[in-house]
Amino acid sequence: MAMAAAASPSKILIPPHRASAATAAASTSCDSLRLLCAPRGRRQRPRGLVARPAPRRPFFFSPRAVSDSKSSQTCLDPDASTSVLGIILGGGAGTRLYPLTKKRAKPAVPLGANYRLIDIPVSNCLNSNISKIYVLTQFNSASLNRHLSRAYGSNIGGYKNEGFVEVLAAQQSPDNPDWFQGTADAVRQYLWLFEEHNVMEYLILAGDHLYRMDYEKFIQAHRETDADITVAALPMDEERATAFGLMKIDEEGRIIEFAEKPKGEQLKAMMVDTTILGLDDARAKEMPYIASMGIYVISKHVMLQLLREQFPGANDFGSEVIPGATSTGMRVQAYLYDGYWEDIGTIEAFYNANLGITKKPIPDFSFYDRSAPIYTQPRHLPPSKVLDADVTDSVIGEGCVIKNCKIHHSVVGLRSCISEGAIIEDTLLMGADYYEVKSNRCNMLLAK
């Protein structure tokens, strides 16, 4: 029986010199889901989410693969669920990811066979006890909005069961006749809503990054240093540093200078002692630069002051608001994150990030961290069926039928049907929204 009224063509990313006779159909995202920790002891399951048990024998992970997960208890006072508002930026037009973004926003692209990229920052928030979350969208947002509404119910628990994940689309109004002009402008246009929440800080996140981070530690550092703004910083070696916006800090970790993609003497001038932020001597020698991750904790009164009074015309946080705050004497601190982080901004980065989860013995990013699971939309698909196939070093999504073929070092997305004789290597099959209807290939494969 057909499972949907319409078929969606398969989407495949295969290096030209690889993969022969691959027939596939698959797209979007779902995997190991777990209970959300309530703020004070009692565990609650976020509505609309499904919990699945983790394997009894966990994989071997490097610290960077599961970096900054809940390894130790963080005690925020007041609690993050009552005092922090999460704001996730849906990203721009995604031209560097075209054609993947032809009909969807960057945060809606598939990830790891079962997920969408937006699941990463939302899950990080939920695992960090931040349950009040807004997602600001503008470009091709229909698919993203649909996924969020299905994955995260209108009430997801949190303090007094008042958590939410709510989409805020760009809109025109008498006061704001233009669409979002940048990250800061997007937040400014909805300040009237954000300031109604009785919170201490706003947590500004990007919707197109792959990483795992405990935001409670981030927020705790912000409060302990009495900062106005805290910027998440990634340690960099000289080779990578030229592609990022770099920051310079003083002996207290306070940011004093910014440089966008510096080279030559300007690059050398941005070297810092990263032991100040917690790196050991050996790693600090390898990583003498710090780059902004585009993740910020901003105190509420500071945000209102910056966007309304001091920089009412600024459109971007990274290039205008944050450097401007530093120049006015505000305390802008750096917070070191020394874990796996990838900006999914290009086709190459998207491909490498997906294939990176198949690496052995240590994946670049793990979806199997029991202390900080990644949530997604429950799809109620059957388990994948593998018949006389040779599958090695690969990740297979739900609802797939794989028969008499060879798959190596690949990611196979949802509802993929792979026929006899196919050889798939170093390949990303993105999946399909629906099973095919006319040929109903999956049922035909099972009937043979």
From TrEMBL:
Keyword Kinase among UniProt keywords: no
Listed Gene3D superfamilies: Hexapeptide repeat proteins, Spore Coat Polysaccharide Biosynthesis Protein SpsA, Chain A
Pathway noted in the entry: Glycan biosynthesis; starch biosynthesis
Top enzyme class: transferase
Swiss-Prot/TrEMBL keywords: Allosteric enzyme, Amyloplast, ATP-binding, Chloroplast, Nucleotide-binding, Nucleotidyltransferase, Plastid, Starch biosynthesis, Transferase
Biological process (GO), any one: starch biosynthetic process
InterPro entries: ADP-Glc_PPase, ADP_Glu_pyroP_CS, NTP_transferase_dom, Nucleotide-diphossugar_trans, Trimer_LpxA-like_sf
TM region positions: none
Enzyme Commission number(s) from the entry: 2.7.7.27
The reaction(s) this protein catalyses: alpha-D-glucose 1-phosphate + ATP + H(+) = ADP-alpha-D-glucose + diphosphate
Pfam family, one: LbH_GLGC
Molecular function GO terms recorded: ATP binding; glucose-1-phosphate adenylyltransferase activity
NCBIfam families in the record: glgC, PRK02862.1
Family (UniProt): Belongs to the bacterial/plant glucose-1-phosphate adenylyltransferase family.
Subunit structure: Heterotetramer.
Record-given protein name: Glucose-1-phosphate adenylyltransferase
